[in-house]
Every structure is written in structure tokens, then in C-alpha cells.
Fold each of these.
Amino acid sequence: MSTLLPIDILLIAACAWLAIGLAGLVAPGNTRFIAKTLFPLGALVGMLVGLVALGFLGESPETAVLVVGLPDLPFHLRLDNLTAVFAMLLGFTSVGISIYAAGYFRQGQGSAPGVLGLEYHVFLASMLLVLLADDAYAFMVAWESMALSSFLLVTTDHRHEEIRRAGFLYLLIAHVGAIAILLSFGVMTSGSGDYTFAGMRAQHLSPFWASAAYLLALVGFGAKAGLVPIHVWLPEAHPAAPSPVSAMMSGVMLKTAIYGLLRVSFDLLGSDLWWWGVVALAVGLVTALFGVLYSTVQNDMKRLLAYSSIENIGLIVVGIGLTLIFHAYRMEALAALAMTAVLYHCLAHAGFKSLLFLCTGSVLHATKERSLGKLGGLIHRMPWVAWLALAGVIASAGLPPLSGFVSEWLLLQSFLFSPGLPHPWLNMVVPVAAALVALVAALAGFAMVKFFGIIFLGQMREPALKDAHDAGTWEKVGLSWLALLTLLLGILPSTVISRIDAATHQLLGVGLADKLNEQGWWMLAPISPERASYEPLIFLVTIAATLLLGRWLVRRLYHGRVRRTAAWDCGYWFQGPRAQDTAEGFSQPIRRIFDVMFRLEMHLPTARDSKPYYSVKVEDHFWYWLYLPLARLVSAVSGLVTAVQGGRIAVYLLYSFLTLLGLLLVARP
Amino acid sequence: MSATISFSAQLINLFAALILLLAFAMLAQRRVMQLINLFAYQGLALCLSTLVVAVSTGQTHLYWSAGLTLLLKALLLPWILHRLVRRLQVKWDVESLINIPTTMLVGIGLVIVAFNVAHPISELSSTITRGTLAIALAVVMLAFLMMITRTKAIPQVVGFLAMENGLFLAATSATYGMPMVVELGIALDVLVGAIILGVFFFQIREQFDSLDIRHMERLKDN
Amino acid sequence: MISISGLIGQIFAIALALLLAPVLSGWVGQCRAWFQNRTAPPLLQPYYMLHKLFHKDVVLAHGASSLFRSAPFVVFGCMVLACAIIPALSTDLPLAPAADALALVGVFGLARVFISLAAMDVGTSFGTLGGRREMLVGFLAEPALLMVIFTLAMIAQSTSVTTIVETLAHREFLVFPSLAFAGIAFTMVSLAENARVPVDNPATHLELTMIHEAMILEYSGRHLALIEWAASLKLYAYSCLGLALFFPWGIAEGERFSGLLLAIPMLVLKLAIGGFLLAGIETINAKLRIFRAPEFLGTAFMLAVLGLLVRLMLEGSA
């Protein structure tokens, strides 16, 4: 073979990431070498991955068989359009995060920099291999190395007990999920022993077994993606990890779970039942609403973002559910619309959520503070970070003209078609579900205003914040790259969609590209311009033109004089930083309106308190409804098992012997 | 699709929708007086929709029902209830067992159920008003919901009367009304029922000094 | 593709919105005064206000950042865009495809986020209070507005505002029951979004009650002028949207100037009636406690959803 195929380049890229990681071990303590040489190299490799995947989109699938693996069980790899979309996401997002990380990691934070670099690059390489895997064995190996490397990254700062706890919880749920995925693959092979994806596609499962496989996959990938009620690890692990790692986990790793869900439900399982979609839709809606409500009441900036990730994953799964429903009723054009919304939201979320997580990293570095109650006014000290974070905030709130709005718009458009469904209940319930999506989107705006307003605006709540400094050059470049992605995804939706359309086409047999190409590149009209259209560029230009023209005219006709003085505030004399809303205060309306959704512990001061204080603690109902009973059950069962534990070797040997005997008796041919 | 539906059917649909709207407004209403007024409006809308059915189908007995509805439900019963409230001096806010937004959410769910349950039935019906059958069912369910969630006696009676409105709407929409005898009978029943309940209120209040029907729980044998 | 007459119509529509919006605010103020037995300010009072404010120096608080200074311009830009794509006079608007009804909700959302952030910028107690309440009203009103739009979009089989208006103007149905629900919900949302009486009071500076005013306390001079102008543009945009959706008669279609000439007096008349009714609503209603506002908007949301259901049931879209 003389020419390098895209799949070969991607494999080389994965190996390059591994090599970069290993190179760090040469001098594990040399922060300068690792941060300023290896991480930028990793970013270059990421750029390569992104560009190759982008260039590949629209080509026919390529496969490769690796010699590594078990005897007779080599790794099968395959690059198709679905993989390419997610590889593009991985590549381009990792560019920003790696560049940022070059400036972020410093001496003396838990693990040695070399070890950290190794873990980080193994994490990247394993995510790429998850996307490329074409058999269950390779997939699981890559999936587990992804889980392990991310676990190690989460526990970088392992001296803190809560971080160790968060890491343990993450590892536990990751493994429960992995078992479900493994079982799902097992069902899909249906006893043929052929663990390649090609073999699974060839199987024709009965509806029962297909549903079992689908539900197992939903649980397994849902555990990784953070679907309710297996989301609890997410708000613990994301804040515990260093910010670039949180960004990588939230922006990219959650998407590998979405990739897996798409791969299983549309590609590997041939049959499709309409209620699969309903299950996904319901789970997604609950997740989205739960995530956004909890994100509005958080007081830790990274937890707020983590819950917001849960919300976004929920919206993505809603889109998947809608696609499944349309697909089951053979309404392929609409399924393509919903699928495009799903893929677009994956890309958009990868961009803006990594951006926001990295911004919290900069804030954390500058102030050593994660609690919203001790931040404030940072726009004066960190204008770069603040303005770039604003881009992420607007996108995350789902507002035009940035990336979050495009996918939300596509999702709502596909909801608008749901009354055409031939099922009598669905055609009423699904449009009402759109109302919930609208509520979630609006609440996301609330959460984001809280996030930005409390951190960057207002007066500084602590005197120490006066010493905060803006991000360094590397960090600024990384943040700007992600902000640029967010902007481009926002204003060039047609161009992006006509690229990622190949994946939609591959999964559903139809796409939107033909329709889109009839119109100009600046216009997004997935059905027809009369039906619905959105032109973000013109939108942006109009607002910008009005803004500049207005400013020019006002200065021309009147003047541009400015005086500075103390704030007025209706004449109140006390205007210290404590007069502002706290994070708790800002979310008080939400707690009050949706109080059934939270487990609240509140202490309100009374008139007679000698030391009045106010406290509110918001906890997750699911801990008390699901996890604690489960934990008690497990500990009760293990209590029973201790009866078997006698301590005498002879008895243990007897157990083994009896087991062996039993197996021999049962397992006769 | 739209060309096949005549103007009168559209009007009937509009009135049916108004009745549903008023049923929801009653569900959300906190004031007793306003509640009674809403009930009166509902009676008026019901009367108008019956009138439109009467005009468009030429069924003379429907004129009578329309008149009866106007007299009884839009004028007489609200007047009696108003008097009752004044005499009993119970102009307090209506208390409900569940908060109002939740009640409304449940109401939306009931509407979906009603629409889907009624769908196959209205397919069978050949009248021009079959679309309203679903709404009538929804109104009955919403009235039921109001009776369940309210703790005071007067809102419960209003709920009961509103339920009758829903049934009447169902009758006109599915079969162009019931036979005159039945209708008169029901009208009389409702009237007598309201009067008896009115007497009852005085008795309840004399007994408990309140119209909160949760006190009635104490009446059971222990 | 863009016709000359369309372009002229577009520019004319924007210019008319800019000119007419303060007059509409003035008219509502006048009607309110009459209803409440007060001496009414002149119709052009908002213009005098704007002129005076533009002349004055901007007095900035020490803690105000660049976001605070740019927000009025962004909000103003958003409102101008909103007015440009709402077919008040004619449905032949070259800018209309830039944003359909869903994006229109997005424009209002963008403006709201900016003004709330600006309110939090100086870091005063009232500012954050106003920002928080505005977002509270926003997240309740936005879904209701979206549901109204959903209902209308299902009738018209389109989310493009101009297509919806054209469909509704040529409807064969004379009375859509779902429109009644949607109309009431839309009115409630408009009251809340424009800081009108049952939810907010545009004429108060009482700390317990104000929302919009609390947010703009720190603004002065040209910034305040732009915000006031933007607020009246928002009222104008909502009024025109409501009139176009629920009373679409008299809006010019196609590329004729004659239609446009007829549309202007029609629009002024409709706005006058609408403003009069608005003042009436504001006079006969008491302002709600802030925690009744969620209930008010929740009701609007339910009504909008109900409209959607009635649409699906009675008007059978299949």
C-alpha cells in the first residue's frame, strides 16, 4: 500500500498521542518540557485528527484489522461517516483544550506532570479508538481504558478525600455501565460468537431480544452520558477533576456515549420499534429538566456546569428519541431533521461547554476559589476570560446567533412535525413534550445568567479577588479557539450541516444536504424557505450594523461624554459587595417554584436568634430514593455473605471443591 | 380539510373551546365570587352553542334547551349561589388541596386523555359537532378534578354543576340533545339539587361554624 | 432576488417602527392617565424624554464595566431586528427569512440576557434583584410564547412569521378555537414581557414591586435613552406581532405600494385600539405579588398548551 488512507492517519494519530504521553515519562517532573512541548504537540495531533475526519466525511467506509489483540481475536477498526463526525468533534475540541492545558498545568498539583500528561494523552487516544472500534472486543478495551485514564485524571488531586470519593463513585458507575454495554453486545451476537460489528449487523434479532439489547445499551451508555437516574457521578467527578480534564470529559467523553447509543440503536440493531423512541424521549426529557433545575441552584461554578451538561445530554437524547420515533414510522425526512439536531448539538455542546469549563479553570487559577459566593466582578481583572466566557454563556443559553441556538432550533422544528405521526397518543403527547423542551431552554438561560453574572459581574465579594489576573497567552489561545468554533457553528449552520449530513445519510438513508444546497450557504432552511428559515449571519450583521450605526449617530448628533461617580441604587447608603445577590439568593425563585424537585434543608434566622445565620442545602432526591436503599441492600447482602467467611483454609477449599463438583454435574453436554 | 367544515360547525367548535377555557379558568380561580361568575359565563357559552346547533340543524326542541340553559345555568343558579355566598358571608379565597399550577398540569393531562378516549367515539358519530364530544368529556373530567381538589363546599357545588354543563354539551354534540323530557327532568334535578345543597350549607355551618367539608370526616362512626 | 420595492418597504418598516414606537408608549400613557382621571402627558412626551436624555451626560457608576456600556446598544439592535422582521405593514420583507418565529423568541431572549447581565454589572442590591426577577419572568414567559407560536405554526404549517400571517389572512376557517386560547396566552405573555401591570409596573420605583425599573436604575443619559427606546420598540414589536397574528387584516401583500398606503392608517388604527385596551387592562388590574407572577405565566403556558391540544383535536391537522 503506497498511499495513506484516512483510517491509517487516524491510527497513527492515536499512536502519536500515546507516544507523546510516554515521552513525558522521560522527565516526569519537568513541567516546562511537558507543558510547553508535549501538550502543544498533542494539540497538533488533535488538529490532524479533526482535519482528516472533516476531509473524510462523505467518503465510503474504510476498515482495517490490527495484528494486536488476542490470538484469533484481532482488533477490527472501521472509519465511517458517523465515526468521522465524532472524531472531528474529538480532534477540534482537543486542540483548544490541549493548548489551554499547556498553560494550565503547573508544578505541584497532585500527580507529577509527566504522569498527568500520559494519562491525558492515553485518554485522548482511547476515545479515538472507541470511535474507530469495529468489534465488541476492541470497543470494550478502548472503552475501559478511557474510563480508567479518566478516573486517574479525575483523581489527580488525590490528597483530598472528597476527590477520592468522587473518583470512586465515577469508577463504580462506569463499570456498572460497562457491564450493561457488554451484555448488550452479548445479546446482539445472539450466540453466534461473532463479536465484530459486521457480524452483529447481520443478525436478525427477535423484537424481544432487540429491545433487550437496546435497553441495555441505553443503561450502559446512559451511565457514561449521565442520564437520570444514573447521573450522580457526573456532578461529583466534573468539579473534582482539573479544569481541562473536566472540559474534555464534558465536551468529548459524554459524546462517546452518545456515539455508542447512536451506533447501537441505528446501525447495529436493524429493527426499530416506536416505543424505543418514547423511552429515550421520556428519559431525555426528565434528564434535561432535572439537569437544568439543579444547575440553576448550584453554588459551585463547576457543579453548575456539570449539571448543565446533564441537561444538554438530556436534550440530545430527546433528539435521539424523536429520531427513533420518526424512523419507526418511516418518516425518514423528519428523522433526518431530528438526527441533524442531535449531531449538531453534540458539536455545539463540545465547543461551548469545554469553553466554559476552561474559563472556570482560569478563574480557579486566578482566585483559588470555586464557590460562586466568593467570586464576583472578575470582568475588571480578567476581561479576556470574561468576554470569551460570554460567548460560551450565550451559546449555552441557546440564544442566537451562536451555536447552541442552531441545534435547539432544529430540535424544535422537528417537534413541530410530530402531529403528523400516525399514532393517536403520540401525536398529542409529543408536541406537549416540546413545551418542556422550551422550558428547559429558558431555564438554561437563567442558569447561565447566574453563572456569568455572579462570577464576572458586580462587585468583588472577597478582597482577595483584587489580585486576580487574566489568563496567560496559551490559555487565551485555547479559549479563543473554542470560542471561534462556537461562533462558526453558530453562523455557518448550512455549511456544517452539509458536511455532517453524510452521517445522517449513513444511519437513515436520507439527509438534508440536497435541500440545503438549493439555497444559499448563508441560509438554513431544512425543509423549504417558506416553511422555516434562519440566517444567522444576516441576523448578526443586522444587529451589529444597528449597534454601530446607533453608536455613531448618537455621538454624531449629540455627544459621547461620560462621567464616573458612585452607584445610585435608589439612594440607599449601603452598597457593599454583600448587598448583592448571593448565588443562593439568585436561585431562590427556582427553589421556591420547583420545590418538589429538590430535597431542601433550610435554616432561616428568627428575630430572637443571638447568632442569626441563613443556610440552605439542596440535595438530590435520587440519593435517598435509589442509591441509599441500594447501598443498604448491598451491605445487608454482604452481611449475609460474611456468614460463609469462616477463616479456615480447609473450609474454603471445601467451597471450591463443591463448586467444581456442582459445575461438573450441571455442565454435562 | 378546512373547506369541508361549515361555518356553523366552526362556531360550535369555538364555543366548545370557550367552555373548555372557562373550565380551566375555574380550575385556576381563587375567589368564590369569580368562580360563580365563570360558571355563569360557561352557562352562557353553552346556551349559545346549543342555539347554533339548533339554528344549523333546525331541531326545534334545541331552542327550548337553549332557553332553559340560559335561564337556569346562566341566570338562576348563579344568582342563587351569589345570594348564598352573601348570606353565608363566605367571600374567602378558595382553598385547594393541591396547588393551582399542579392542578392545571393534571388538567392538561386529563385533556389529553379525554381527547384520545373520545377520538374513536367521535369517529363513529355523524353529527356536525362530533369534534366537541372530546371537549365535553374533558370538561366533565376537569369539573370532577375541581370537586376533588377543593376543600370548601361552594366550589364543590360549582364543580358539580359544571360537570352537568359538560354532560349537556356531550349530549348536544353527540346526538343533538336528549329528549325533552329527560332534559327537563335533569334541569329540575339540578335546580332542586342546588337548593337542597344550599339548605345543607346552612346546616353544615351551624354545625361546624365553617364550610370546610374536611370537618365532615368527623361524622363517621369510630 | 431582493426587489427594490421590498428593500424600500423594509427600510420604511424599520423607520416607521423607530418613529411610531415612542408614540405608542405615549399613547398608552395618555390613555392610562385618562382612565385614572389624571391629566394626561402630551402624546409626544416620550420624544421629549429621549431628546432630553440624549443631551445629558452619561453618569457611570465606578463599578460599571464595558458590558454595561455596550448592553443598551445590543438591546436596541435586537429590538430593531425584531421590528424589522415582524410584518406590521407588509409581508414583503427581505429581512424576514433571517429569523423565523422561533428565532424571534431568541432575539427577545438575547436582549433579555444582556439587560439582566447589565443590571448585575454594577453590583447593587436593586440591580441583581431586577436581573433575577427579569430572568424569572423570562423563563416562564418564553415557553408560553413558544407554545403560542407552535399553535400558529401548526395552522400555517410554517414557522416563518410572514407565511403565518399570510396564511391567517387568507384562512378559510373564520374562527379557529385554538386561536382564542393562543390569543389570550399571547396577551398574558406580552403583558409580562413588556413589564406591564399585572406582573410589573412601568411607573413605579417601589423596591418590592419593580422589575424592569430595578434593572435600569444605574443607567443615565444616552444609555437610558436607548433602553427606553428599546422598551417602547419591544412594546411596538409585541403589539404588531399580536395584531399581525390575530387580526391580520389590512397588511399589504406582494410588491405594491398601494397596499402599503392602505396599511399605514390601518396599522395606526389597530395600534391605537390596542394601546387603549392595554391601558384599560392596566387600570382594572392590580399588580400581582411577585410570587403570583409564576402562577400568572403558568396559566398563560397552560392556555398555550391547551390551544395546541384543541388545535390537534378540533381542527385535525392530519
Amino acid sequence: MTVQDISSLPPARGQLLAGLRDILPLAIGVAVYGLAFGLLAAQAQMSGLQTGVMGTIVFAGSSQIIAVERLVAGAGAGTALLAGLALNLRLLLITASLRDELAGRPWWQILLGVHLATDENWALMHAMRARGRPAGYWYLVGGGLALVAIWVLATVAGAGFAAAVPEPRALGMDFAFTAAFIAILRSLWSGNAMLLPWAGSVAIVLLAGLLAPLDPTWTLILGGVSGAAVAGAFGHD
Amino acid sequence: MTETWTLITGLAMATFAVRLSGYLLGRRLPDHGPWARGLQALPGCLILSLVTYLLMQGGPQEWAAGTAALIVALITRSLPLTMGAGIAAICLLRAFF
């Protein structure tokens, strides 16, 4: 399907397909991590069914990796759950910032939308909108559906063919998301009003890293909230 | 085996609760003024914090590859090209330095 076809479709379906299409470069990175997670799941003696169910109903890659890694290290389910949950607290900020997309929608769309919200499709939606493209709820859902499918396929495949899975770092894929988020930041930059909040976020993350090495989740939340606080306190409507 | 199912269902419910709570929290914040401005600035600030953190965890090779990715992003504004440039740069740097 070409770009012209998509723009002539009804808004919801057009956005869903655009979301599916635009997420593909990021989905390749997700697939590589999915294979790596499958490797870990095999070490934890998880079956293909368990791996697939976990990918579908948890659908939060980094927390799945941490939690199962704890399990492999011999921790109990409770400890592993807490480690995974801590990493997911930033999702609170992600879905909080989705309120305009979710406002006035039926409850099933709200539940679907929040479950499918991940760093990748949420960030991409904001980046596309900052560039003047129509990207809202269905764009987010389209990207999310593509990511669920790829994540489940890759994790189950990784668990099944553990011996043949390459290490992400050996392919340079550990840098894929850093590069992707740099591209997304470029699209989100909309002028000098963002200079102060962004500088605040960077300063706080650097300070936290140098002075008081915290758990990554808390560093991210502190940095994100600090920048937002600067925008709230010193910005203008 | 039971341990694994406990973890899967527990983490799924906890993660969904976090996602839903974020929405309920965001819905209660005012539409105008400082809170709205903060919420609007949040995505960029959170993604920038993540990139800063990831680059801090790396060394000179990651910083150089990040610079290469940023230059391509500034010129092209393209996600696939920026990802390609970043991955190519980190592979070259790790192979030759």
C-alpha cells in the first residue's frame, strides 16, 4: 500500500495503517530484543506458551527481561515481579500524557490504548504529530498492534531456537533504540521554549548519575518530571 | 512452573494497573496553566532523559555514534536513516577502535 492510498482512507483506518507502517524500523530493533528475551526465557525453562502469553499480557520488554533474569538468578516470583514493576513506573507518565488521545473514548478503547502504549509507539506518535502529520489514538494502536505481533513472534522464536540467537550487541543493535530516540527528539523539538525544560532534564539525569547513582527507573522519572516541572513553572501558554 | 505462571500473571496485572493509573491521573490534571504545560512537555523530557541516561552508560564510542545519529537526524529528519546511521557508526567504531 502506498502513502497516497493511506491518506485517502477514513481517518481511523488510515491512521491505524500509517502507525503499523511507521513503526517497522523500530520493530526490527524490538525483534532483536525479543530473540534475546526468548533466550533468557529458555534458560528459565519457560515453555513457548508461557513466553507468548507473557509477551501478550505484560507487553513491556525491559521489565520482562529484568523479571525473568531475576528468576534465572534464583529469586522468587515476588522479588522478580517487584524488579519488573519498578522498571514499569515510567509507563505511568506515558499514559498520563495520553489523556487528550483517550478523552471521550469508550472504555474498551481506553483499556486497549493504555495496554498497547509503549515507549516506541507513544514517542513515534508525538514525533509525527510534531511534524504536522495526523497521528492520534489509532496511530498509537496501529503501532502497538505491530509491536505486540513482532514481540510475541520474536520471543517465542527465541525461546524455541535459543542456540541460534545472536547477541544484540554483536550486531550493534544495542544502539538501535538510542539512535531511534535521537531521531524522535529531533522531531519533537519545536523551538526555543523547550530549551530550558530539556536542559533541566539533561542536567538532572547527569547530576543523578554522577552524585547518587540511582536505579535507572528513578533516574528517568526524576529527569522527565524535572523538565516538565520547569516547563510548567517557567513556560507560557 | 507454577512460580513462572505466578510471575507472568502478577507482572501482567501490576503493569496494566500502572498503565491505567497513569491515564486516570492525567485525566484529573487541569486543562490550562502550569500542570497542562508540564504534561505537554513531559514526552520530550522523558525521552531526552532516556537518551541522556543511555549515553551516560556508554563510552566515547557511543557518544561518537550518538553524534553521528544526531547529525543525520538534523539533516534528514528520518527515523530509518537515523537508526541506520547510528547502528552503522557503532559497528564501525567497535570494529576499528
